[in-house]
Give the backbone structure.
Amino acid sequence: MSEITPMMRQYLEIKADYPDTILFFRLGDFYEMFLDDAVKASRILGITLTSRNKNADGNEVPLCGIPYHSSAPYLAKLVEAGEKVAICEQVEDPKLVKGIVKREVVKVVTPGLVIDDASLSPKENNYLLALFTDGGRWGLSYLDLSTGEFRVTELADLQAAVAETACIAPREIILPAAFRDPAQAKALAAVTSDRTVTYFEEWVYDADYCKRLIGNQFNGATPATLGCDGLPFAVLAAGAVLHYLLETQKGQAPHVTSLTPYAQTEHLVLDESTRRNLELTATIADGKRKGSLLGLMDRTVTAMGGRKLRQWINYPLMDQKRIVERQDAVEALMRDPGVRTEIRALLSGVYDLERLNGRISLASASAKDLVALKGSLSRIPAIKEQVSLLGSGLLADLDGGIDPLEEIRDLIAAAIVEDPPFVLRDGGIIADGYDPELDELRSISREGKGFIARLEAQEKARTGISSLKIRYNKVFGYYIEVTKANVAMIPEDYIRRQTLANAERYVTPELKEYEEKVLGAEDRIREIEFSLFQKVREAAAAEGERIARSADRLATLDVLASLAELAHDRAYCRPEIHEGDELSITEGRHPVIEEIYATERFVPNDTLLDNGENQLVIITGPNMAGKSTFMRQVALITLMAQMGSFVPASQARIPLVDRIFTRVGASDNLARGQSTFMVEMMESAAILRGATPKSLVVLDEIGRGTSTFDGVSIAWAVAEFLHDNKLHAAKTLFATHYHELTELAVTRPGVKNFNIAVREWNDRIIFLRKIVPGGASHSYGIQVARLAGLPVEVIDRAKEILLNLEKGEYSEGGVPRISRGKKAQAPSPQLSLFAGDDDQIRQRLRDIEVSTLTPLEALNVLDQLKRML
């Protein structure tokens, strides 16, 4: 611009302090955006882009704006797009200021620090997460500003840090500035690629500074008193979060009242691959909640209950006592459907107390929020009464910890109208009878004409002047007009204001007092109402810790009632949790598949795993027969049991499992240069490194991404490792199409063979979905291909090739007939890759331990030998 206006200079000075944010610059009733901010915001929001200085050649300033009173949806859209927004308000009354009104940024809204409902999913947390490392251990801290949840932990290495970050699924991540370097950033690409990342310089991670921030936030507490002694990196990560909070919120968050340390050993550990493969909170196909375990289990009736259930699924317990306490509560609720139904009905009217508390604490709650708080608190006495009927244990603890907060409920009921307006400054918020001064002003405002008429009649009677009139104009305000003929009758307290040709105008102290009240009544009403509202909100904020405790207990009660409702409706059993090694499930079912295909009978299956004779189960059978479903259901039942939930089975004994690993299906990561086979091998490597005898491992097809011989070799070696290596000998379900692996049962005492039963009929197969002992003799791949709709000529040719391979047929040149069709020319001779069948048969016979074969295994071996002829 040829000449910068004072207002634009002010904008540029403020914008310089917030270069990576979109600045909402308050001008009257609008938030305006200029220059690059305007271009970016107009594109994201789909609003018109205009400009200032249109007549100045080449100096146009891009401009767009939104109404300040309806900015929430626009703000939500920008944050959803990953943008940060600085809210710059007028901090002076324009009526009282000459020149430019002072403006300041009052807060910065970022994807990880959202508190407005328009930008939040009700049943999902909105986390800001910070990581710090010295190259070895990692400190991790995360905060949900909307609820006040603040937790820290330390992790052994990068892999654990990435897995935990993926589990928490933050909206925004804070990292040291060193991670701006592409080489360093690559290590965290898996969790940062689609999230907003904020970088802090090294000084932010100074230990003394971080401890000081923690002390300021938690009333002088030290990391040691908060349970973080021995977690130096976690303390630095927590300090980064609190530093960011001060930078963006321009102050502390009073509702963040605790910093909770936790360790991975407290929970059943689930890596990112396992969470994805088991579809715990989202489906693999479309990332939707519906069709996941969470979608199946969530019958909660409150938003805070839904968030807690998600947390229970992500962090199953390793503490047998706590698991049993949850089971006892679920059982009590399940056995008393009347009480359960009443509790759920009462809870359904409870608003999201955690997020209401957050907004109240941060002084952003509306009058409607306070009314919602009052309505929720009003239901607590009835909820406590119902819970008290169910006995002791966890439910009794919850009952004792739920605080009705009667004084806050009664204060809001007395002060706030039942249906207040959305805009605080418009008035109409405070109830009649709460404040005498407000009531008087409202009376004056509502009955101005009536007051004047009454006063006029009163003055006529007092003076005896029947022609006396009370009038108003903008120059003199209210006045009493008396004709010249009646001046002698004027009382002493009348004060002359103006003389006219035929009349005199007067005022009285009473009229002057009324004028001051009535002329400023509306403005004064709004001021008083807002002041009273703030006092009520501050009173509620002062009880934030009590509100938070009650909210947490109500959320837990909601989850327990939800689990009881699910167990009752789906006929789940209570699993026995023990510290041994036997995992036994009778008539187990896949919880999600059973629900999705509710019109079909789900075929249940039994499972027995331990660290002895049933340590590694090899499962063979055709595709689509149900191998993957069976193995996933075992993992899900185990996880549900350690949540404290009942499980889909008629009976179950579940040992405390420290980790669940899964290697399922085929996927690649081309963005990171990883093929399907590479991903498979990396996941397999992680399992072999991390598995322990207390782990549960689910392997669905190892070695399928390479040649047959390579694949069989890798699969065999992996199975042997999981059996033979006592440090990693986990309870394992191993599904494979490599029938060679069934021979492991001959030489390994802890290996058992099972297969999915099928029936052949007219060259077609019928899936029975039943797990039976023994190995499968066929893969039935061609029959499955037929079901998938491959052309008939392809199916016929595949059968021909299969027959040739099984019989070992070769051309005259020694080439297997797989290489040519019925009309193809014979290829040039070359050495056969399939020679030496007689030697293979002899070697197979030598390896057989006849004395240990069961009759069924003997039949399988005989069938294999026959196919080798």
